[in-house]
């Protein structure tokens, strides 16, 4: 009787262990089913892509700002960490024109890299309001564009700001006239 009882107890322990494993699997499937029903899966995927983009953009911003800034997400809001100011985090709405440009450029490059997937994009063109930038911000933008060029990226810039265009290694000068437009290539 004792041996029979031990065998039953062992069998019961085995069944309980199997029941626990099946219960865990069922919980996983129920969670997945509920998530898919509530469109939470799409939100999860979007949050994952956003996190990847923000990480990549943060690294790019750090590179093109000479190690000063990094993008981050805090309580659902984008912030820029100023590493030259003890890592102070500021909301993106408080950024100056030049800082906003650098953050936007970083996000645009990260997004273009993501969309390219396994392919390499040959160029990125910017038609941004450079004329609204103050001289210091314009200098930061020019330095950032030069840094990107040295990293092997080609960034085309559409601008009317002569001081910025003069710093670019290759330029296409478009001139309008009554007879039509003409294009002249200028290389440094």
Number of helices, counting only DSSP H or I runs of 4 residues or more: 5
Q: What would the principal axes of the Cα set say about the shape?
A: elongated
The largest sheet, given as strand count, sense and whether it forms a barrel, is: 3 strands, antiparallel
Number of strands: 7
Radius of gyration: 28 Å
Strand content: 15-25%
Structural class: alpha+beta
The overall average pLDDT, rounded, is 85
Span between N and C termini? 98 Å
Helical amount: 40-55%
The helix/strand order is HHEEEHEHEHEE
Question: Could you characterize the architecture of this molecule?
Answer:
The chain has five helices and seven strands, in the order ααβββαβαβαββ. The protein is α+β, with helices and mostly antiparallel strands and 188 residues long. It has a three-stranded antiparallel β-sheet. A hairpin with a 5-residue loop joins strand 2 (77-82) and strand 3. It is elongated, with a radius of gyration of 28 Å. 14% of the residues are buried.
Strand and helix layout:
Blueprint: H1 2-37, H2 40-64, E1 69-74, E2 77-82, E3 88-91, H3 97-116, E4 124-126, H4 135-150, E5 155-157, H5 162-165, E6 170-177, E7 180-187
Parallel strand pairs: 4-5
Antiparallel strand pairs: 1-2, 2-3, 6-7
Helix pairs in contact: 2-3, 3-4
In short:
With 188 residues, this protein is of the alpha+beta class.
Write a concise keyword list for the protein shown above.
188 residues, alpha+beta, three-stranded antiparallel sheet, 5 helices, 7 strands, 54% helix, elongated
């Amino acid at each position: 009787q004792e041996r029979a009882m031990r065998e039953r107890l062992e069998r019961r322990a085995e069944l309980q262990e199997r029941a626990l494993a099946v219960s865990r699997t069922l919980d996983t499937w129920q969670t997945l089913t509920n998530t898919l029903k509530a469109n939470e899966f799409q939100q999860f995927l979007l949050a994952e892509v956003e996190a990847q983009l923000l990480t990549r953009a943060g690294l790019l911003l750090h590179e093109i700002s000479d190690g000063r800034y990094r993008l981050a997400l805090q309580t659902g809001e984008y912030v820029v960490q100023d590493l030259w100011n003890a890592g102070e985090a500021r909301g993106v709405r408080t950024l100056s024109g030049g800082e906003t440009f650098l953050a936007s450029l970083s996000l645009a490059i990260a997004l273009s890299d993501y969309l390219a997937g396994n392919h390499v994009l040959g160029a990125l063109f910017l038609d941004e309001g450079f004329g609204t930038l103050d001289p210091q911000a314009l200098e930061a933008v020019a330095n950032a564009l030069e840094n990107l060029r040295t990293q092997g990226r080609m960034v085309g810039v559409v601008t009317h700001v002569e001081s910025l265009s003069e710093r670019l290694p290759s330029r296409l000068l478009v001139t309008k006239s009554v007879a039509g437009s003409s294009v002249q290539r200028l290389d440094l």
